[in-house]
């Protein structure tokens, strides 16, 4: 029977097959059908974000059960075949799954979203007033107050939490990832001092009130700035004999606790969410980002650029590159081209020769040099003429000549603020100029001035359609003012002739700069 989008089974063991197995089959059929559609590379990733991810998240939250690793491996394989329908993967899945700020395309990692859905449940357990009716049932299944369960030592829960339940599934996930993603430690400053089987006996209410007015009593209330809070020094609230006894018993317990040094550290970002005792807005997205940040993986293309350019590239410069790649324009084709350039997506003659037994590593532009990636994009004598013409055009448009190097023209590491560049005509012309090079891939020809003007005009028209208010209209005119006024000048007409003459000279003398 299906109820609210979930197939109900007569035994818990059948929930996976009836729901996740069925959904996987449906997703396979959908992606197989969509695979033949004319979708861009980034468009396919967006399909996974907007169509597939919500369907999986619904089941992750509605059925918080343990899922086998094979399920996620099958999903990854399915997604990979959809993203690369006619060719082998050119980038690692792990690179694509990074956030855009870290050098990826934010391709959903479903296993991490699965983890985030279980972490959301723990945040709900810690909420003072979540209003979730299922918590009454789970409290009965856990045998202990839910807010205390995640922080109690794992062996103490073995015979208390009912197995094969949503609580046991969440705890199994929690204990497997809490250290891996730096979510917490064992023990944690959130270790409960009530509802704790490892610390039996009552603690008087009067003693708890000397540490905190919160209804929960945790280690973080007893330890401050790495020291025990000495309540005996507070003369305004004298301690009774019973309070003093409980206080020293508490200190003895914490001193004998294995790994007690971790109790003194600051709270992690995840623990801070839990300590607030509130429901978290957009909780799965927020917790997914915490998991992402714990992964210190660096895209391999960053190191490759440093080797290609024979120079280190700072984190600040990579931040500018990635910001301008993803936020420099709202036109997806230009965003895709920019990311393809920095990620070495395009295949050079040298790479093709290594793949093919009979391949020729020579440059396609007949310059008699080896066609490495940097050569095809920058050092080839012919392509340098093209970039020189682009540099001249940028100077005419902006009265500013950007540094003539691959860091600027290929990695967008242009001098100036990111916000200023995003509003500039310089960035727009540069994005369009870069997008024209792949149109002449495997060809000795170079883009013409008419191709560039057409592409920039298409970008201008696309941006004009996005104008929605007087404020944005003024910003649009400010951005395009110098392009509009320069295009009709005699100086630009003369420059057009110079561009054509340069290409004619190159066509007549192959290989000559």
Trace the largest sheet across and list its strands.
1-2
Overall tally of structural domains:
3
Structural class: mainly alpha
Q: How would a crystallographer describe the biggest sheet? A: 2 strands, antiparallel
The count of DSSP E runs of length 2 or more, i.e. the number of strands, is: 4
Measured as a percent range, the helix fraction is 55-70%
* Rg value: 30 Å
SS element count, helices = 25
Order of helices and strands: EEHHHHHHHHHHEEHHHHHHHHHHHHHHH
Mean pLDDT: 90
Low-confidence blocks of residues: none
Relative strand content:
under 5%
- What is the overall shape? elongated
Distance between the termini: 73 Å
Protein model, in words:
The model has no long low-confidence stretch (mean pLDDT 90). The chain has helices at residues 15-34, 41-62, 69-83, 93-96, 110-126, 134-142, 154-157, 166-177, 205-211, 219-222, 241-256, 269-276, 283-294, 300-309, 315-327, 332-342, 349-355, 373-379, 381-398, 406-409, 418-422, 425-436, 449-465, 470-487, 490-508; strands at 2-3, 6-7, 223-224, 227-228. The chain is elongated and about 100 Å long. A two-stranded antiparallel sheet has the order 1-2. The protein is mainly α. This is Reverse transcriptase.
């Amino acid at each position: 029977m299906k109820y609210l989008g979930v197939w109900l089974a007569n035994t818990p063991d059948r929930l996976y097959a009836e729901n996740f197995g069925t959904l996987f089959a449906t997703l396979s059929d959908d992606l197989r059908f969509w695979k033949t559609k004319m979708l861009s590379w980034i468009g396919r990733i967006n399909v996974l974000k907007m169509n597939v991810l919500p369907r999986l998240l619904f089941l992750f939250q509605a059925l918080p059960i343990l899922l086998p690793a094979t399920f996620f491996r099958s999903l990854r394989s399915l997604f990979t075949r959809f993203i690369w329908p006619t060719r082998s993967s050119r980038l690692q899945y792990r690179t694509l799954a990074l956030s855009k700020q870290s050098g990826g395309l934010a391709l959903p990692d479903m296993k991490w979203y699965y983890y985030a859905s279980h972490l959301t449940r723990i945040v709900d357990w810690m909420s003072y007033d979540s209003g979730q009716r299922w918590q009454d049932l789970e409290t009965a299944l856990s045998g202990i107050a839910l807010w205390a369960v995640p922080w109690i030592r794992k062996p103490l829960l073995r015979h208390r939490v009912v197995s094969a339940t949503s609580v046991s599934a969440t705890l199994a996930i929690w204990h497997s990832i809490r250290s891996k993603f730096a979510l917490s430690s064992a023990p944690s400053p959130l270790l409960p001092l009530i509802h704790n089987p490892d610390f039996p006996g009552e603690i008087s209410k009067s003693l708890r009130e000397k540490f905190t007015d919160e209804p929960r009593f945790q280690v973080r209330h007893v330890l401050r700035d790495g020291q025990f809070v000495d309540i005996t020094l507070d003369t305004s609230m004298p301690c009774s004999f019973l309070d003093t006894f409980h206080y020293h018993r508490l200190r003895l317990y914490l001193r004998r606790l294995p790994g007690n040094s971790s109790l003194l550290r600051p709270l992690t970002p995840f623990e801070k969410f839990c300590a607030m005792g509130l429901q978290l807005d957009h909780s799965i997205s927020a917790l997914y980002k915490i998991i992402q940040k714990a992964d210190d993986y660096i895209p391999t293309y960053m190191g490759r650029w440093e080797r290609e350019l024979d120079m280190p590239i700072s984190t600040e410069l990579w931040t500018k590159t990635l910001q301008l790649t993803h936020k420099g324009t709202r036109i997806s084709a230009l965003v895709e081209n920019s990311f393809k350039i920095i990620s070495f997506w395009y295949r050079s003659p040298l790479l093709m020769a290594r793949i093919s037994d009979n391949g020729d590593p020579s440059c396609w532009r007949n310059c008699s040099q080896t066609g490495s990636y940097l050569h095809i994009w920058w050092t080839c004598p012919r392509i340098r003429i093209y970039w020189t013409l682009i540099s001249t055009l940028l100077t005419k448009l902006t009265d500013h000549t950007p540094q003539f190097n691959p860091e600027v023209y290929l990695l967008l590491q242009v001098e100036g603020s990111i916000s200023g560049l995003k509003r500039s005509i310089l960035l727009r012309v540069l994005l369009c100029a870069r997008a024209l090079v792949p149109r002449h891939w495997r060809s000795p020809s170079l883009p013409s001035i008419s191709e560039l003007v057409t592409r920039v005009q298409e970008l201008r028209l696309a941006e004009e359609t996005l104008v929605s208010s007087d404020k944005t209209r003024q910003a649009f005119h400010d951005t395009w003012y110098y392009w509009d006024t320069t295009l009709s000048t005699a100086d630009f007409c003369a420059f057009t002739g110079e561009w054509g003459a340069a290409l004619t000279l190159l066509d007549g003398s192959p290989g000559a700069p």
